[in-house]
Amino acid sequence: MHSLQPNKLTIDNLAFERNNQFLFREINFALQAGDLLQVRGANGSGKSTLLRMLAGFIEPQGGTILWQDKSICQHRDAYQQQLHYLGHHNGIKHSLTVYENLQLHAALMTNKPEPNHLKTAIKQVDLTHVSHTQAIHLSAGQLRRLGLARLLLHPIPLWILDEPTTALDADGQALLGHLLKQHLTNGGMAIIATHQTLAILHNTKTIYLGEQHV
Amino acid sequence: MFSSLFTIMRHEILMTMRQAFSWLTPLLFFVIVVCLFPLALGPDTDLLNKVAPAIIWVAALLAILMSIGNIFRSDAEEGYLDLLLLSPVPLTLLVLCKVFSHWMTNCLPLILISPLLGLLLHLNAHEEYALIITLLLGTPVLSLLGAIGAALIVGIRGHGLLLPILIMPLYIPVLIFGTGTMMAANANLPINGYFAIMGALILLSLASAPLLTGLALRIGVNQ
């Protein structure tokens, strides 16, 4: 994996309002190359909403998100090319095989990968034995692993992962830890919504959403 | 970029072909609806010949409406839509890719089987010719316009009959010119002018629909 350029993500006073109630507000943090941000909070505290906002899908109702000191609302297309988003659904097409899914994702990233490159990614997440099985026959954990394989196709600075540990077994969680560590060491950054403490690196920041921590 | 688009299109078509019901259902629906009319109207050759354009066009329109509503549904459910929005490939082109593969898998089979149904309704050779050309020119417009509606309802659960209500009014010009061409063919009038108007409809929807669909998708994923 190549080293990534130094990048900077700054969040200032971010707020989201639904039905005249703040789901969250006054969210502030700054991330630099090699940083990991954990977003924690109870169910319904707005973790997924915050992550989708950071991925540029939802416009913030208050506050700013700056990537390299530029507002992501004004430079959305350029910003969105700098991030991988892995949501509750993995973005996996169920009627395609594991291999075809990765081919499709590479095409979406305008990447023309060598077949070996795809096979390596599949091997890294330990799905080689099912690489020609349609995704509909995979278990939830295997789908999640395939979602992770997607992150490995192309080095991209910012990973936004929404509860990536869900459905993963112990091996899978160790794998996720390993991949994150590799990504951060290479100068990437990651934002993760999680209920579990990930013991990964020293430069981990944590923010809490929800009433009890305001 | 173009090799990417080619790969995406190939996979889109592959996905549809693997789920046979998704392209067979509209086709069978089309065939069955058209076959119902001779049964209901009786063996009156002149009458069937007269109402044939209306029957075939309305049936085709309903069949396409049925399939286009699902063009983004599984994408939204599987989280694939997010990836389309994040992709460096312009969303307009991705939409165009998806619409084209919809047309290939859902409209082309209708067009291929329509001459057979034309025989059933006693169309002569000239009318058959007009039927095939108008369907070839009209169905891309139906796919393109339908995609706008499908994108608008992508974030709404249990939308039921919302799509036909949104999209049917936009289908009216295609219906008018499609059936108009066939009536002109029936009366042995020149029909090239009609073809030109339908070609213009394709260009108009080609220029506007993918863009609008993309905008609607960006709003839709927010829900």
Question: Can you characterise this structure?
Answer:
The complex is a heterodimer of chains A (214) and B (223). Chain A is 29% helix and 27% strand. Chain A is of the alpha/beta class. In chain A, a hairpin with a 2-residue loop joins strand 4 (62-67) and strand 5. Chain B has one domain. Chain B is elongated. Chain B starts with a helix and ends with a helix. The model of chain B has no long low-confidence stretch (mean pLDDT 92). Chains A and B meet through strand 6 and helix 3 of A and helix 1 and helix 5 of B.
Strand content of chain B: under 5%
The greatest interface between two protein chains, and residues involved on each side, is: A-B, 31 and 26 residues
- Tell me the series of helices and strands of chain B, N- to C-terminal: HHHHHHHHH
The chain-level mean pLDDT of chain B equals: 92
* Percentage of residues in helical conformation of chain A: 25-40%
Share of helix among residues of chain B? over 70%
Q: What's the CATH H-level superfamily name of the largest domain in chain A? A: P-loop containing nucleotide triphosphate hydrolases
Radius of gyration of chain A: 17 Å
Overall mean pLDDT of chain A stands at: 85
- What strand order characterises the main sheet of chain A? 6-7-8-3-9
Low-confidence stretches of chain B: none
**How many domains of chain B, as an integer?**
1
Query: What Rg of chain B is obtained from the alpha carbons, in whole angstroms?
Result: 18 Å
Structural category of chain B: mainly alpha
Query: Which residues of chain A form runs of ≥5 with pLDDT under 50?
Result: none
How would the global form of chain B be characterised?
elongated
* Structural class computed from helices and strand pairing of chain A: alpha/beta
CATH class of the largest domain in chain A: Alpha Beta
